[in-house]
């Protein structure tokens, strides 16, 4: 029997999960404009576009798709927009926004015809388990990178940082503290860890003056002019719809569409696998609605003035907190809206405060890996490639592509053509096209 108390507890869990998800994804409000402004788009206009897209599409994911997954402008696609489409190919930013819109329209058509859902259903289970774990490693790497725990090294590519850095010590404190709270099953452990790590970071900003850590002593944080910024709607509807339909721009539209396709597919599959968000057939729950939401996000992105929207892997933070319903996405989406006016306050939560949560979520997402039969090499090797290439290439898309291609080639080579459905062969063709296009 469900009591009022259990309903309240469940609702409280979903709200905490939504706040945790927002804290893990809010960096996009600043990072996305920082990248897209290099294409010539106004920084303040992209901030407004980012907030609007994250708010409306996360609410759609919650109310319509009923999944605890945040939708926001995708990292990687904003870099493609700026450095490949605009700077590399010389496309005007307004025309590139039009290409984003038409990529979204293509998404909508594919979603209505259930093409993307069909692709999800032909993903071999070992690849699905590996993608979930690979995303976990990717999230962990992002956490370590945000905390400067793992740094670039010209001799070894990466290395561990020195422990005489106060930021590293604060991160380690936050990681161990949050781990202890999680192990002790403390309600709201992740969000408590984020808050306590933020407080612990105060001496860094106050006494060391490090810009990456919170500085409660900064005058701008107590000055109303320092926390207020009026929204800039200058990019709303500024896309060039007709100019973006030029034949020369179809490869750009294709690249936007295909990159977003694989990113969203792998996110839905990986997060659903790790969080147990599956239907009776073992497929991600409410998949068709989630895909349609993702398609709408890309279409609206062009209208609002930003790069394509997509489901965020950091949603796993809220799922690890206990989020299981659309209420988590709704709460997270609502948390974005005030930052139409209060974006400078994002500096209150430093990256080292959310880094421990990302590292721990990576651990939570490793669970499906035990379901891979590592003794069956024709299953294990493609799964392994998908698993390791996601963090090593810094791309979920690359992991999925190489998982598909290696599965097909190895299965055919060992005489198991029956384990390669026709649909997967068709997807393989698009994988090769995506690789040849540089994505």
From TrEMBL:
Any GO molecular function: purine nucleobase transmembrane transporter activity
Cell compartments where the protein resides: Endomembrane system
Membrane spanning residue stretches: 15-35, 41-63, 70-89, 95-115, 127-147, 167-183, 190-209, 382-405, 420-438
InterPro entries cross-referenced by the UniProt entry: Azg-like, NCS2
Membrane topology type: Multi-pass membrane protein
Any GO CC annotation of this UniProt entry: plasma membrane
GTP-binding listed as a keyword: no
Chief location bin: membrane
Record keywords, A-Z: Membrane, Transmembrane, Transmembrane helix, Transport
Cited Pfam families: Xan_ur_permease (PF00860)
Keyword rRNA processing: no
Leader peptide range in chain numbering: none
PANTHER family, A to Z: XANTHINE/URACIL PERMEASE C887.17-RELATED, XANTHINE_URACIL PERMEASE C887.17-RELATED
Protein family according to the UniProt entry: Belongs to the nucleobase:cation symporter-2 (NCS2) (TC 2.A.40) family. Azg-like subfamily.
Name this polypeptide is given: NCS2 family permease
């Amino acid at each position: 029997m469900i009591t009022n108390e259990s309903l309240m507890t469940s609702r409280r869990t979903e709200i905490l999960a939504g706040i945790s998800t927002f804290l893990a994804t809010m960096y996009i409000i600043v990072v996305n404009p920082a990248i897209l402004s290099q294409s010539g788009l106004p920084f303040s206009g992209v901030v407004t576009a980012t907030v609007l897209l994250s708010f409306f599409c996360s609410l759609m994911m919650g109310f319509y798709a009923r999944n605890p997954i945040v939708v926001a402008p995708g990292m990687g696609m904003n870099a493609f927009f700026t450095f490949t489409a605009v700077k590399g190919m010389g496309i005007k930013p307004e025309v590139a926004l039009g290409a984003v819109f038409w990529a979204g329209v293509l998404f909508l058509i594919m979603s209505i015809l259930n093409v993307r859902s069909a692709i999800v259903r032909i993903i071999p289970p070992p690849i699905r388990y590996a993608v979930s774990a690979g995303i976990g490693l990717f999230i962990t790497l992002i956490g370590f990178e945000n905390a400067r725990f793992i740094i670039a090294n010209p001799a070894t590519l990466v290395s561990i940082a020195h422990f005489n850095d106060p930021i590293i010590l604060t991160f380690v404190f936050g990681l161990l503290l949050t781990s202890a709270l999680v192990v002790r099953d403390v309600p709201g452990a992740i969000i408590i860890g984020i808050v306590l790590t933020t407080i612990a970071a105060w001496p860094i900003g106050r006494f060391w003056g490090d810009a990456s850590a919170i500085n409660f002593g900064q005058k701008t944080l107590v000055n109303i002019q320092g926390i207020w910024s009026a929204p800039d709607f200058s990019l709303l509807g500024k896309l060039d719809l007709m100019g973006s339909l030029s034949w020369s721009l179809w490869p750009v539209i294709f690249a936007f569409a295909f990159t977003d396709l694989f990113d969203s597919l792998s996110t839905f599959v990986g997060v659903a696998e790790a969080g147990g968000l599956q239907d009776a057939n073992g497929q991600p729950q409410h998949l068709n609605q989630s895909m349609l939401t993702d398609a709408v996000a890309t279409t609206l992105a062009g209208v609002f003035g930003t790069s394509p929207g997509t489901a965020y892997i950091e949603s796993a933070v809220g799922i690890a907190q206990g989020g299981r319903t659309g209420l988590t996405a709704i709460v997270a989406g609502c948390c974005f809206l005030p930052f139409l006016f209060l974006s400078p306050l994002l500096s209150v939560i430093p990256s080292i405060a959310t880094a421990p949560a990302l590292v721990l979520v990576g651990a939570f997402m490793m669970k499906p890996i035990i379901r891979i039969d590592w003794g069956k090499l024709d299953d294990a090797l493609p799964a392994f490639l998908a698993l390791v290439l996601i963090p090593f290439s810094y791309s979920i898309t690359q992991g999925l592509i190489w998982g598909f291609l290696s599965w097909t080639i190895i299965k055919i080579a060992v005489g198991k053509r029956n384990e390669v459905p026709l649909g997967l062969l068709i997807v393989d063709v698009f994988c090769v096209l995506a690789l040849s296009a540089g994505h």
